[in-house]
Amino acid sequence: MFVSLLIFSLSLLGAPFSSLAQNVTPLSELQWTLTNPNHSISVPGHVPSQAHLDLHDAQVISDPYYGLNDFNLRWVAETNWTYTASLASLNLSSNATTWLVFNGLDTFSTISVCNQQIASTDNQFRQYYFDVTKALTGCNSPTITINFGSAPNIADALADTSLNEPWKASQLNYEFPNRWLIRKEQSDFGWDWGPAFAPAGVWQPAYIVQLSNNHLYVRNTLLDIYRQGQLNNLPPDQTKPWVVNASLDVLGTIPQHAELRIEIKDASNKTVTSSVAKNVTISGGAISGSIVVEDSAVKLWWPNGLGQQNLYFATVTVVNSGDTVVSSTKRTAFRTIVLNMEPISKRQLGQGIKNGNNWHFEINGHEFYAKGSNFIPPDAFWPRVTTTKIQQLFDSVTKGNQNMLRVWASGAYQPDFIYDIADEKGILLWSEFEFSDSLYPVAQSFLDNVREEAIYNVRRVNHHPSLALWAGGNELENLELYLAELYDPGNYSRWQKEYETLFLNVLLPAVYENSRSISYIPSSTTNGYLSLNHSAPHPMVERYNNETEGYIYGDTDHYDYDSTVAFNLSSYPVGRFANEFGFHSMPSLQSWEEAVAPEDLHFNSTTIQLRNHHYPSGSLNTTNFANSTKGMGEMTIAVELYYPTPDKADPLANFSSWCLATQIFQADFYRSQIAYYRRGSGMPERQLGSLYWQLEDIWQAPTWAGIEYSGRWKMLHYIAKDIYSPVIVAPYWNYTTGDLTAYVTSDLWESVNGTVDLTWYDWSGNVLSNVTNGTSSIPFTVGALNTTKVLQTNTESLGKSVDLSNAVLKMNLTTTGHLPNDKTLSIFTHEFFYHPILSLGKARLVDPGLNLIVNGNNDTTSGPTFTVRATSGVSAWTWLDSPSGVVGNFDGNGFWLVPGETKTVGFDVKNDTTGGEWVKNVTVSSLWDFSTP
Ligand code: BMA
Question: Which ligand 1 atom is the nearest neighbour of the CA of 704?
Fold first, then answer.
């Protein structure tokens, strides 16, 4: 049924209702039809939606994620699609101006109303709005038609005609080519973790807006909250009051003498302040002004684990002669977040920090350790990404002890609801413009298009306290410019100039001219700037490779698919911040079963190989198994190097064990790196962040993800949760020299005392009394954001008295302290089992004799818990597995046990289709089970 939304504005000054201000109808309420060019397909369509989703709903195509549909459905991407609807039901007023407002069209559309062409669009990331009053005049049976051209075909056509083709050798190609020529989600054309559907449709909400005379419609709201005097990228003076700068982008004509009123309310609806804005300006369809809010009037917003997420509501109202014209309310908060890239100070040098520049975030003036991962598009089809899905995903983020996600630069700008959830949960979103792994065109029309996209999105999301940073794009300075210099030195200055044109001259001003609260970097991985001068025409001069020997600059990324060096600590980069690093693994059998036919469930079946896109085929070629085989081989080699290899009689059980084995290597490798980077907080590099690649899956495939498409946690997410605990103990082993140390590392903001118990066992669980300090209790004090050594020994000498293949060191830490901004005293514990032999495949594992007890099966409120006990040997990489039919996660997993030890964990159910029966089918295994039949 069609329901029209009548929005009245209630004056904050107490005036009575004004007359009809706006009539806003979501286009989702129309009856849409989707057709192909020859009308052989004509099915119900939706807004927001995409052609693939509507075709699947109408059963024209099967599930796009099933089997090899990534390849089979290319015809959908290569077809033009038309969405049509009648506007007859709308009762459009003839005394009003009528606008079409689209918050997102994907991508090449031609829009007609009453058979009159209104406009064409070519940017998925822009908001478009069109006055359609004339087209509707005298139109008896009004219709709207939106024709979407095939993005891959248009990109190819542009490539044929483009005079401004960026340098070819720099362009990483996945499946469909020429992605860099168009402003559409770059991973829609394929990526090394995802499919290539290149969908088309109205992917964001859209509206028909009717405005009677003198009324306005707010199409975008900018709120910028910063400390007086604050400048982008520089730490502000925290004693200054807050400035709340507001700016409304509107449709309609802003009255010349309009005022702006800004009211701030707290979460309980209590007014904090309400004042008329100063410095009001009206220009370019926007009205702007600001107020000052005293520091003491509001509470700060903090990220997860660092304090509370205090939220406020800001209402910005346009007032004309005492009457409210229009108002807009945004939920927001008070915080400063800065990426500090300033030179290392004398004070820092005095603390033992190596010279160079800083590269860390500061929240409300405090350094903190950024713990997290990289967030890719959660689905190949955005319209089916639900609030529930993101809430569950972000719950996993906070449960995983993460406080920051890097929103990777070639999906889409996140919709507001995703920032809203991050605001509530305290997840900082390092956000990026959508440019990745390519140089990009610099034709004027391309730059103008990008400028509009950037300004719209910067203004749209700036009110969210979770917004942590804007980065120009992914792997540009460190990879694209590096490749250009390496392979095309003769033209390097051209490529660098073009890069600066886009990333320093277009994107940087889009941030600096609309926000003072957010930092900007041109590239995700960067050595930072040589100079920053906000008054200069080009404020930022990049450092590039202008380095002084022995100094440390910038953030790092690290990928090494030669697993022989995976645990060689000297192969890890030393930098100030690790913004991505990783290795791929298989998803669980349960995830594979969602998407792959039973006969294809083996490691190198055609379907599984072709769903593995590391390494990408680089083209539309569906017979290129060579690259996939290489990626599958890397996983196999790593397992063979470090663990007993699965060898089960039942092929499905064997496949499942192999999937798990690849996850164990992945988790082991990431844990080693995270422990290393975190220890760097107390080392000369003063390393203050690790964000691994990648948080979650876009579909069911071998990827770097820690969370599978359904929400199921891989080994990685459990192990990351563990190693991101506030205070950790971890070993650091040079297996060539035998030098073994252990450090306690803390990201608390206060110094804490505690003990680490160290006990050597053999694999049967006997304490090795012949090892010096076979068992010992080491007291420690670890400073705020610091590390301290608790063990120094050598495994070569240890090997003289002990069979290293039959030895395990259990490290057990306990301390008490306060989480930042938390008055309650918490107990922090952490465990690490170290083995002085590189390959567990050569360790003298024994059957741990695992028992599993299900407690409180009938408890429907807190759910059951699971107690695991080892009875006869050390249980390595203990794995609780939940069956198909239930999605959720255990509180902990992948843990180790010595005989007699138990561990009890709960399970958080996200989706249960078994009516509780799943509990009976939970299983437990350990590394030992790989070699049992
Ligand atoms: C980096 C990322 C992504 C990529 C990942 C895995 O290159 O920035 O572009 O998917 O590693 O290869």
Answer: 6
Indicate if ligand 1 lies below 6 Å from the C-beta of 693. yes
Coil, strand or helix at 423: helix
578 CA → ligand 1 middle, Å: 14
Q: pLDDT tens across 83-115, in order?
A: 999 999 998 888 899 999 999 999 999 999 999
Would you call 78 a catalytic residue per the annotation? no
| pTM reported for the whole predicted model | 0.97
Q: Is 70 exceeded by the pLDDT of residue 3?
A: no
Does residue 580 have its Cβ closer than 6 Å to ligand 1? yes
Candidate of 669, 693, 697 to mutate for ligand 1, largest count of ligand atoms within 8 Å of Cβ: 693
Task: Please state, in angstroms and rounded to a whole number, the distance separating the CA atoms of residues 38 and 802.
Answer: 78
What whole-number distance in Å separates Cα of residue 227 and Cα of residue 235?
10
- Specify the ligand 1 atom closest to the Cα of 191: 10
DSSP strand E in 179-270: where? 206-211, 217-227, 242-251, 259-266
Sign (positive/negative) of CA torsion 885, 890, 896, 899? negative
Q: Comparing C-alpha atoms, which of 183, 125, 189, 191 is closest to residue 158?
A: 183
pLDDT digits (tens, 9 = 90+) for 314-351: 999 999 999 999 999 999 999 999 999 999 999 999 99
Q: Which value, to the nearest 10 degrees, does the dihedral of the CA atoms of residues 790, 792, 795, 797 take?
A: -140
Q: Under a CB-based contact definition with an 8 Å cutoff, are residues 314 and 330 in contact?
A: yes
Residues paired with residue 592 on neighbouring β-strands, in sequence order = none
Sorted by where each starts, the structural domains of the chain and their CATH numbers stand as: 23-209 (2.60.120.260), 725-842 (2.60.40.10), 850-931 (2.60.40.10)
The reply to whether ligand 1 has any atom less than 6 angstroms from the CB of 524 is: no
As a whole number of angstroms, the distance between CA 585 and CA 138 comes to 61
Decide if pLDDT at 133 tops 70: yes
Name the average pLDDT for the chain: 95
Give the closest residue (by CA) to ligand 1 atom 7: 475
Helix or strand (DSSP H, E) at 422: helix 416-425
